[in-house]
Write a structure and sequence with these properties.
single chain; alpha/beta; seven-stranded mixed beta sheet; 15 helices; 39% helix; binds nicotinamide-adenine-dinucleotide
Length: 494
Amino acid sequence: MTVTETSPHVSENPFPTGRLFIGGQWRDATGSGLMAVEAPATGEKLTDVARATIADVDAAVTAARAAFDSGVWSGLPGRERARILLEVGRLMRERSEELGRIESQDAGKPIAMATAVDVNGAAETFEYYGMLAQQLDGSVRQTPGHVLATVQREPLGVVAAITPFNFPLILSTSKVAPALAAGNSVVLKPADDTPLSSLKMAEILQEAGVPDGVFNVVTGVGSELGDHLVGHPEVDKVAFTGSTEVGARVAGQAGRNLRPVVSELGGNSANILFADADLDRAIDTVIQSFVFNAGQFCMAGSRLYVERPVYEEVLARLPQAVSSIPWGDITRPESVFGPLISRKQFDRVSALVSETVAAGARLLVGGNPDPERPGYFYPATVLVDVREDHPAVAREVFGPVLTVQPFDTEEEVIAVANGTAYGLAGGVQTGDAVKGQRVASRLKAGIIWINGWGLMDPAVPFGGVKASGWGRENGPEGLNEYLQTKSIVLNLEG
Ligand code: NAD
């Protein structure tokens, strides 16, 4: 989406339009401001959404606080919340076609992927946290003397959730589902570019029975609303996914109020291909690791390191493997990836590739996007003869771009793989399971895949180290982010 001033007219179309979801009501933004949502595949306007103001953020936080304090959700037994979260999952499956179409057009994803990965993943996540909500419990601790010590787990209060453009539904769900399972209320600020599935989610949560005020959505411009939302005194926890730069600002803002933050930030992950790997399978994995979601995947395996004995063979095979990927038309079920999200991202990726070539790298395949094609389509691109200080190696690309370098020893490749400010993901492709484990255990990242790339599951935690953030989403660890522990110690004497 590109943020433009538009007339306060909401166009007739099948997408959620022009309203905020606050306190269980759909309402206009204060001042009736709107902003256009653009389809990345065409560059045309899809719809308008409300451009929230600071007053709207205040209203959403107030509604979330009132709902939390009333106990209408936070006071329910876990199994009651579970019933509603499981119903959310069911409704998402029932509406997967509609949700998939919204996500596909808003984020430029192939329709089949949007439905199979994004919508299915969101439904699974609500179901997973619904099941964990049923099992929420505390414990009794053994203590000396006449003391009964119980340890309870409680929700925190109001959670501000802020999400990026690349996986709008899943990354909103990975915050909203555990936060609600724990009993919190939520104010969700989706990405400026991709707000539509969050509005649909509000409709589904309400229908499933989430009480008014427990879940609120404010659409708008992050740079206008973010500081206020994050620094709001009634916000008890911030859940942020986005760039490292904005993440640092969010952490500073929340820190001023001493509020905890879970943050999932940028990445620049290394994929290590050893000569003993099954090469057919490894090359499929390499392709998947950098073209998935047009490379707009925080865990993209954008830096490939190939052991010297198979380096030339891998370079010889990559052009054919890359050229045979079906891509582009997001309405075709076989399309693997679609456009980049916006003109801004297209220009950024184009510049990173050009600067890297200007610095001495060689384009093995790709580059040269079609200037006549509407939308923001960038072809899968492989750069070789690169160095660690080249822009496409040193920085997060966030586009379908792979850099390839040879290596000679395990020590050397572990050092270069870890030689980045980021630490989100990593991969080891090898026929030797022991070596795979050994190398994986030395990579500084939150998740490592051996003989694969990108497998995610609601039960498996992910998150970063170093500049890739802190805290974890998914798994019981993801639920713990939204709970606090209280010890109650009863003196049984006298
Ligand atoms: P971004 O940082 O530009 O924006 C993310 C969100 O922050 C948006 O909702 C935006 O409106 C909001 N925002 C902007 N200014 C703000 C402020 N001052 N205070 C609070 N919020 C503000 O990121 P993006 O371009 O939408 O997404 C791409 C980035 O996200 C990449 O760096 C990618 O690696 C990262 N990402 C990380 C993960 C992960 O799990 N680690 C997952 C997906 C994306």
